[in-house]
Amino acid sequence: MGTFGEIGLPTARKGNEKWKYTNVAPIARIEYKLSKPSVVSLDQIKASAPWDDSWLNFVFVNGVLRSDLGHPEVNGVSVFSIAEEANLDEPCSTIIDYIGSVTDVSDEGFAALNTSFLSDGIAIEIDPEIQSDRPLNIIFFDDGTTNSISHPRVLIVARPNSAVSVIESYVGGGSNCTLTNSVSEIIVGEGASVSHYRLLAETDETYDIGYGRVKLGSKAEFKSRSFFRGAKIGRYDLNILIDGEGATCDLKGLYF
């Protein structure tokens, strides 16, 4: 909590151009509680978010990974629970070392808050030369039964010359005010390609603050499509670091 304690939530003060038009005071006035596990059926998930049984589906309910609702294994794609990897004496992969590598929390209050409360999330590694024809479908479902706050974390590392599509959805129900505060980090290796689709389709009582940080190696390709519907305040701060010659990115979004 050290960094967040120092910088706090962003304000619309003079010089803070990034937050000039976003007033977070309504968010700060609410007394939130951390999300708790909840029982949600697969039918509820399918009715709320993009889904196809042939996809690689990963479902979080109130911030907790539900391995019984998805397909965690496929050749060439490794999936790790951030919580489980962090607690191992000898982690299964070095991918966890990438957490925070492209997210600077020194002046980003919400990202610092996410990092302070990081308890679980998903880390996905696509092996070199793997061209996956099955999208990675990551769903964060909040049942909205309490005035809850959740801090989703996503890490995707696409190794050199790999290719993958990722669908990242934030959905839910209920009538209470909730706050979703997410951070997603995507590292695209040399010659690799990632197509990223982000959907925000929570209720009108939701506050949703999202950070996306992407690092591109040489000749890497990144395509982003963002779709937003609902939410009292919905914000997605996407930054791309081009760290090699010949890298390209294509960013588009739609609010409705």
UniProtKB/TrEMBL annotation:
Record GO biological process: iron-sulfur cluster assembly
Entry-linked InterPro entries: Fe-S_cluster_assembly_SufBD, SUF_FeS_clus_asmbl_SufBD_core, SUF_FeS_clus_asmbl_SufBD_sf, SufBD_N
SUPFAM superfamilies listed in its UniProt record: Stabilizer of iron transporter SufD (SSF101960)
Domain called SUF system FeS cluster assembly SufBD N-terminal: residue spans: 3-138
Residue ranges constituting the SUF system FeS cluster assembly SufBD core domain according to the UniProt record: 146-256
PANTHER family, alphabetized: PROTEIN ABCI7, CHLOROPLASTIC
Protein name (record): Uncharacterized protein
Organism this protein belongs to: marine metagenome
